[in-house]
TrEMBL record:
<dbReference type="InterPro" id="IPR002871">
    <property type="entry name" value="NIF_FeS_clus_asmbl_NifU_N"/>
</dbReference>
<protein>
    <submittedName>
        <fullName>Iron-sulfur cluster assembly scaffold protein NifU</fullName>
    </submittedName>
</protein>
<feature type="domain" description="NIF system FeS cluster assembly NifU N-terminal">
    <location>
        <begin position="10"/>
        <end position="128"/>
    </location>
</feature>
<comment type="similarity">
    <text>Belongs to the NifU family.</text>
</comment>
<dbReference type="Pfam" id="PF01592">
    <property type="entry name" value="NifU_N"/>
</dbReference>
<dbReference type="GO" id="GO:0016226">
    <property type="term" value="P:iron-sulfur cluster assembly"/>
</dbReference>
<dbReference type="GO" id="GO:0005506">
    <property type="term" value="F:iron ion binding"/>
</dbReference>
<dbReference type="GO" id="GO:0051536">
    <property type="term" value="F:iron-sulfur cluster binding"/>
</dbReference>
């Protein structure tokens, strides 16, 4: 597949997650964490249920650009059912991908998140893409402190 076709496919995946977000909503129990990106106004509220060391459920609400909300949709989709360790490993992979660092994804189930790799070409948008992931890391840190 040519680069242009791949780029078009990735844009379509991002727009699909933006227009038809997965896991949008709230949870009545578990962790809730809100973060924002003051630079562009993106705001995300994440809800997680973690039992033992497994992410049982993940949902989000928020306002922002297509990249921010699509990333939240993809993130909640890919971490559900994963161990906390796997979720954090996915987050590290995603951060490295956004920074253009070499990444090893051999043992990771990435879902649609690779569609966001083109964001690395736009440094101002990296914070949009990583907002939900940073919120997840912070929520897990807070859970560990309890």
């Amino acid at each position: 597949m040519s680069f242009n076709n791949l780029d078009t496919l990735y844009r379509q995946v991002i727009m699909d997650h933006y227009k038809n977000p997965r896991n949008k909503g709230t949870l009545n129990e578990g962790l809730t964490l809100e973060m924002n990106n003051p630079t562009c106004g993106d705001r995300i509220q994440l809800h997680f249920i973690i039992e033992g060391e497994v992410v049982i459920d993940a949902k989000f609400e928020g306002e922002g650009c297509s990249i921010s909300l699509a990333s939240a949709s993809m993130m909640t989709q890919v971490v559900k059912g994963k161990s906390v360790e796997e979720a954090l490993k996915l987050s590290q992979y995603f951060s490295n991908m956004m920074l253009g660092k070499e990444t090893d994804s051999d043992d990771l189930e990435l879902g649609d998140i690779e569609a966001l790799q083109g964001v690395q070409k736009f440094p101002a948008r990296i914070k949009c893409a990583t907002l939900a992931w940073k919120a997840m890391e912070k929520a897990i840190d807070q859970e560990d402190e309890m």
